[in-house]
Amino acid sequence: MEILQPLLASQGGVVSRRQALTEGVAPHDLRRLVRRRELAPVFPGVLVDHTGEPTWLQRAWGAVLFCAARDDEQGGPGAALAGASAVRAADGPGRGEDAGPIVVAIPRERRVLAPPGITVVRTFDLGARVQWNVGPPRMRYDEAALDVALAAPEELAAIGAIARAVQSRHTTAARMGEALGRRSRAPRRTFLEAVLADVSAGACSVLEREHVARVERPHGLPAGTRQQRAGTLSGIVYRDNAYDELLVELDGRLFHDTAEQRDRDHERDLDAAVAGAGTVRLTWGQVVGRPCSTAAKLSVVLERHGLRGGRPCGPSCAWLAAA
Fold first, then answer.
1. What is the pTM of this model?
2. CATH for 222
3. Does residue 84 sit in the same domain as residue 132?
4. HSE (CB half, 13 Å, CA atoms) of 259?
5. pLDDT along the chain (323 residues), means of 10
6. How far is Cα 248 from Cα 240, in angstroms, rounded to an integer?
7. Same domain, residue pair 142 and 169
8. For residue 227, with 0-12 CB atoms within 10 Å meaning exposed, 13-18 middle and 19 or more buried, which class applies?
């Protein structure tokens, strides 16, 4: 067991059978260590140095070693954590979900039949897209976070994945945009390219466009005056949508505001109140995730200000439940 200690220490207490044999452990000695419960299986051909429940990091090491051992036999570049598992590893303990299978990337030309607890994805150019010097090896953060966004079941979840990635400070919207540009095929490419470009520029033109396409137009709501220039006590500002004495502002920020940002928004709202106008602020979740209920509530506010309201967009519209 002593001969394995450096390797176990560097791999979170996990070692593959192949590695142990390479280090000089005889097959019968390895079997004896398992019988004496000094090592226990975590995946076929992969062992951990205790008999309790393996930690997430140990499962991650085990998954990578299981897949890498099979690739190495064919001269491949090994395996690495991918997608949500690569993001979870980079974020560190207590950040992210520990349940569920470990996602591992292998070269596109390889085949690995993974046991329960491991999800294998085959990808191109693995060698250049992985940080091989970290433990366990994992896809670069911008690549992994982009994979999470592309695999999201809906657009709002994809936006959330981008927001969490940028907020983590492990990557930037510009780097994620470059990674997206290298993908020959990607779902929601146009939408995500626009969102990433907005985040890089600090603008919210995508949210403005989605507001018109999802909330305003399908529900017959009146169009406000876009980007109305207004002089306030604090200076010149541009209102996203002005309806006489009602202002509808679109908050396109995807991550937590700083105190200064919140202060500027509240100052704008206070200046609007001084001028006799009320302000409604709409977020990504309200516009992209809940457009029908948002339209119904906005219709009520418009009517209270003496303006024309709207209507359900169709028989399955969530308008009636929200109004």
1. 0.72
2. 3.40.960
3. yes
4. 0
5. 88 93 91 93 94 94 87 60 94 76 93 92 89 93 92 85 83 90 84 83 74 90 78 68 81 61 62 65 86 90 89 87 57
6. 6
7. yes
8. exposed
